[in-house]
Design goal:
Layout: E1 7-11, E2 15-19, E3 22-26, H1 28-38, E4 42-50, H2 53-64, E5 72-75, E6 81-88, E7 91-96, H3 109-115, E8 120-124, H4 131-143, E9 149-154, H5 163-169, E10 174-178, H6 180-190
Parallel strand pairs: 1-4, 1-8, 2-6, 4-5, 8-9, 9-10
Antiparallel strand pairs: 2-3, 6-7
Length: 209
């Protein structure tokens, strides 16, 4: 009997991390989808990129990693997302460029159909910094299977988060994820009492590198 492969969707940002030694494909939801695929399920990335060189390179990288681009939207006006990464005393600093393609996610009919057959979905606070993407993500998550796992990635970098919309997600059947550095702070700031789940099934043990 063939074991069922679950539909695991990462919806939100997909981007290039511009590191001192070169660029690396990133974005927490995309990482989640990629590692889910490595673990044997149907890892699906749902995001938006620009019609530019970075976008073309991103599609090639996804193909090399055998991640389908069926749910990657192409934006004719906004650039592909990038994060400029620098290091000071061994600690990384991030400049997450604003007004990029994934700030303008559109809830298409194909995304609706995907949502209705999703078994687990990873989404985060970062991609909700823009109201259009925030509306799209919330609609997608609300339409996912009733018993679907909902994994909320809490990103506290720069100023791209709000207490209200972060805390509201904990009202869903959601497993919150936070990097260890921000775990205590996020619990205090969001007034969230349960222990956040770190490395839900080893998803963050690997990445797109």
């Amino acid at each position: 009997m063939t074991e069922r492969r679950y539909n695991v969707v990462g919806i939100g940002e997909i981007l290039w991390d511009l590191l001192p030694k070169g660029k690396q494909l990133g974005g927490a939801p995309a990482n989640f989808a990629y590692v889910s695929k490595q673990l044997g399920d149907n890892g699906i990335a749902a995001s938006r990129i620009g019609n530019d060189e970075f976008g073309n390179e991103l599609l090639k990288d996804l193909a090399n990693k055998k991640i389908a681009a069926d749910y990657i939207q192409i934006d004719a006006e906004n650039q592909t997302g990038i994060v400029r990464v620098s290091f000071e005393n061994g600690q990384p600093n991030y400049e997450i460029v604003e007004n990029v393609a994934w700030d303008n996610l559109e809830f298409s009919e194909s995304w609706r159909e995907l949502a209705e057959k999703t078994d687990a979905v990873c989404f985060g606070s970062l991609a909700q910094r823009n109201k259009d993407s925030r509306k799209t993500i919330r609609e997608f998550v609300s339409l996912s299977e009733q018993n679907a796992w909902r994994i909320f990635d809490v990103n506290l970098r720069q100023f791209f988060f709000r207490r209200t919309f972060c805390a509201n997600h904990f009202g869903w059947r959601t497993s919150p994820n936070s990097i260890m550095k921000n775990c205590r702070w996020s619990r205090k700031y969001l007034k969230f009492q349960a222990q956040p789940i770190l490395n839900l099934p080893n998803i963050y043990a690997k990445g797109l590198s």
